[in-house]
Write a structure and sequence with these properties.
Length: 66
């Protein structure tokens, strides 16, 4: 996670928001933590793809309401 702050700044720059934007820090954390999430999963590649689909499209588009 040593790159989290740098990634958050890069995301903020790309988004045109202040470098200390909390949403950008959350996205950076989520992205970097995805590797640990996939570890130990039966299909690590699918786990990473699912995480990034959630990141790209949001909860409602990846999970139907029950």
């Amino acid at each position: 996670m040593r790159y989290e702050a740098a990634l958050a700044r890069a995301i903020a720059e790309q988004a045109g928001v202040p470098a200390d934007d909390t949403s950008c820090a959350a996205l950076a954390h989520f992205i970097l933590e995805t590797r640990n999430l996939a570890r130990g999963q039966p299909n690590p590649r699918h786990a990473v793809q699912s995480a990034f689909e959630l990141l790209e499209h949001g909860w409602n588009s990846t999970h139907s309401a029950t």
